[in-house]
Amino acid sequence: MPISLERIGLLFTFAASKRKQNQFIFFAMTKEERHEMIMEALIKHGSVQVSDLVSMLNVSAVTVRKDLTDLEKSDKLYRSHGKAVLVNPYINNRSVNEKEKLASDQKHAIGREAARLITQDDSIAIASGTTVHALARNIQPVHRLTVVSASLAVSNILSQHDDIDIIQLGGMLRHSSLSVVGEYAMRILEQCSFSKLYLGVDGIDIEYGITTTDLREANLNQKMMAAAQKTIVLADSSKFGRRGFAKIADIDAVDAIITDAGVSPQVIKRIEELGIELIIAQ
After folding, report:
1. 197 and 276 together in one domain
2. Of 38, 120, 149, 192, which has the fewest beta carbons less than 10 angstroms from its beta carbon?
């Protein structure tokens, strides 16, 4: 969501720390300093209005637009309708290492809430994505837990628990996500049934549905949903209003969504109207 005026003061403080103590923010900053401030705002808030950047940096709109153009050419942000966003609303395929750094605190809180839903002797499935990595790190099994995993990273994290039985799906490895896709993975799912599927996504559009960047992953996710009694989507608030290349399912195929407090009131109202359980991780 766009940065609020209340947050501008925090960013002024950030900029001041980059200068000598006897200087003031209205003195001209270098281009590098402006770029650093812009990226700090985007990393924290996902998007920022050009008008807010004008006030925050104390420069003209022309200067801000030039800065945003430079950063966009470096693939650091995406410009859209008078604002800058951290990534293109039409999601590109990014590496798991790059995604891991984004909204890490929110993902940890989401993973913690998701882990609380696991019951004694449960059987669950975990798809791919960095948010499900946070789930795996928060799992403390009650008695015996069975996990069907599409993610190599998730399986590696859970392998530290002797009381978790892990079924690692096989198939073709997606290097960008360190997860498997393809026919072999889907064949195993035909023999499985589990209470919950924890699904990470790259985009949630209320009208269009949930999406990912890879068609093969979308197909595998659909198979996992069919084998699960309940589908729980784990997504930080930056995923709302975005679409990936490959559609997984309509939004009404989802039973619950766990996200963070950054989701807008309008989105919350719409999700609740659809009868989808919404859990806001704190």
Report:
1. yes
2. 120
Report whether pLDDT(151) > 90. yes
State CA 142 to chain mean position distance: 28
One domain for residues 17 and 108: no
The CA distance from 114 to 105, in Å, is 14
Instruction: Judge if 100 and 189 occupy the same domain.
Output: yes
Is the same domain home to 114 and 178?
yes
**CB contact at 8 A, 28 and 14:** no
Pairing of strands 172-174, 179-181: antiparallel
Indicate whether 90 belongs to any domain: no
The reply to whether 123 and 257 lie within a common domain is yes
Give the torsion through C-alpha atoms of 177, 183, 186, 191, to 10 deg: -140
pLDDT of 112 reads 97
Q: Are 1 and 45 in contact (CB under 8 A)?
A: yes
Contact 254, 210 (CB under 8 A): yes
Domain hosting residue 175, numbered range = 96-281
Q: Render 64-93 in DSSP notation, one character per residue.
A: HHHHHHHHHHTTS-EEETTEEESS-SB---
In a domain, residue 91? The reply is: no
Residue 140 forms part of a structural domain:
yes
Q: Do 147 and 164 form a contact (C-beta atoms < 8 A)?
A: yes
Are 199 and 254 found together in one domain?
yes
Q: Find, among 64, 91, 74, 63, the residue nearest to 3 by Cα.
A: 64
> What CA–CA distance (Å, rounded) separates 231 from 112?
17
Model pLDDT for residues 119-143, shown as the tens digit of each residue: 999 999 999 988 999 999 999 998 9
Same domain, 64 and 116: no
CB atoms within 10 A of CB 37: 21
Pairing outcome for strands 203-205 and 172-174: unpaired
CA–CA gap between residue 223 and residue 233 (Å, rounded): 15
Q: What pLDDT, on the 0 to 100 scale, is given for residue 27?
A: 56
